[in-house]
């Protein structure tokens, strides 16, 4: 995953802007979007609305999910994230990795960064969990009281193309838990969080050479290559860029801006 929302802005700066809108309408819309982002970002635990997603028990894997935020990460968690990013992504980025790693380190601790952590239930904690009350089991610290962390999702609520969207910056699972259905479990949760917070879409970037992730999002999770992705904006830009922007839009406005072919967008 490439945390590239800033970089994408220049590709398509006028997409979605409606020439006939008055200044007042534009200001009102911006205010409404800012209010949505503020409310979404103020939520302390995005899992609280979806308790069924706190636990994952399939394919021989037992895990717990926890919420977090970038400016509250323990240093052990920061190291964990950095190591997992390196293990999963260094090979894909090749010589670009040192620069990308620095960018990702900065993004990791941003106040806007929101996390879902996945922690394996060790045998001991699994039995402890069965005797815990629901409140205890949901408030226990992932790192201290449960088994080891095995992956995470880093997401943010941002404005993209004048739309409030949930941008997935990272979805990273340790190799030993990949292919056990966790990705297919986490992405619908992310989509529910987006919809609950009135985001128009889930947006993410994938490195062009990450064929497993491309297949996962496009074939399995039904994401599409967005109209704001370099390959759809201009093939010449695409050659220079190493990523695609994928999306799943929920609102009609977001579908028109992020999913429709270019020509149709301008007719809206
Ligand atoms: C990409 C990733 C998030 C997918 O999550 P996952 O839990 O491994 O995937 P799931 O087990 O939910 O599998 C979902 C589907 O993806 C496909 N898939 C997953 N891993 C695959 C692999 N290693 N090879 C081929 N197909 C794979 C499978 O077809 C599977 O579909 P099926 O269950 O119908 O057979 C995870 O593998 C990962 O963290 N990879 C490394 C980091 C990364 O590339 N992140 C995405 C950055 S954009």
From TrEMBL:
SUPFAM superfamilies: Acyl-CoA N-acyltransferases (Nat) (SSF55729). It is an enzyme of class 2 (transferase). Residues 139-217 form the N-acetyltransferase domain. It comes from the Eukaryota. Its main location: cytoplasm. It is found in: Cytoplasm; Nucleus. One of its GO terms (molecular function) is histone H2A acetyltransferase activity. Keywords: Acyltransferase, Cytoplasm, Nucleus, Transferase. It catalyses: N-terminal L-seryl-[histone H4] + acetyl-CoA = N-terminal N(alpha)-acetyl-L-seryl-[histone H4] + CoA + H(+); N-terminal L-seryl-[histone H2A] + acetyl-CoA = N-terminal N(alpha)-acetyl-L-seryl-[histone H2A] + CoA + H(+). Its EC number is 2.3.1.257. GO terms for cellular component: cytoplasm; nucleus. Residues 1-23 are annotated as: Disordered. The keyword Transport does not apply. This is N-alpha-acetyltransferase 40.
């Amino acid at each position: 995953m490439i945390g590239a929302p800033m970089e994408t802005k220049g590709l398509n700066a006028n997409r979605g802007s409606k020439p006939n809108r008055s200044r007042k309408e534009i200001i009102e819309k911006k205010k409404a979007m800012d209010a949505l982002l503020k409310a979404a970002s103020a939520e302390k635990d995005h899992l609280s609305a979806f308790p069924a997603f706190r636990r994952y028990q399939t394919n021989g894997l037992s895990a717990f999910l926890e919420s977090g935020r970038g400016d509250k990460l323990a240093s052990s968690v920061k190291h964990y994230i950095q190591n997992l990013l390196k293990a999963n992504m260094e090979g894909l980025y090749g010589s670009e990795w040192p620069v990308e790693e620095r960018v990702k380190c900065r993004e990791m601790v941003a106040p806007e960064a929101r996390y879902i952590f996945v922690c394996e239930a060790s045998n001991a904690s699994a039995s402890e969990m069965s005797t815990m009350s629901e409140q205890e089991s949901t408030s226990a610290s992932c790192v201290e009281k449960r088994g080891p962390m095995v992956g995470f999702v880093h997401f943010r609520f941002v404005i993209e193309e004048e739309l409030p969207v949930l941008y997935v910056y990272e979805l990273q699972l340790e190799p030993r838990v990949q292919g056990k259905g966790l990705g297919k479990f986490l992405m619908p949760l992310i989509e529910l969080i987006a919809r609950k917070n009135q985001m128009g879409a889930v947006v993410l970037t994938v490195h062009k050479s990450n064929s497993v992730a491309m297949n996962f999002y496009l074939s399995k999770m039904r994401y599409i290559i967005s109209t704001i992705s370099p390959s759809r904006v201009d093939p010449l830009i695409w050659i220079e860029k190493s990523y695609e922007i994928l999306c799943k839009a929920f609102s009609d406005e977001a579908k028109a801006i992020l999913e429709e072919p270019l020509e149709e967008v301008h007719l809206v």
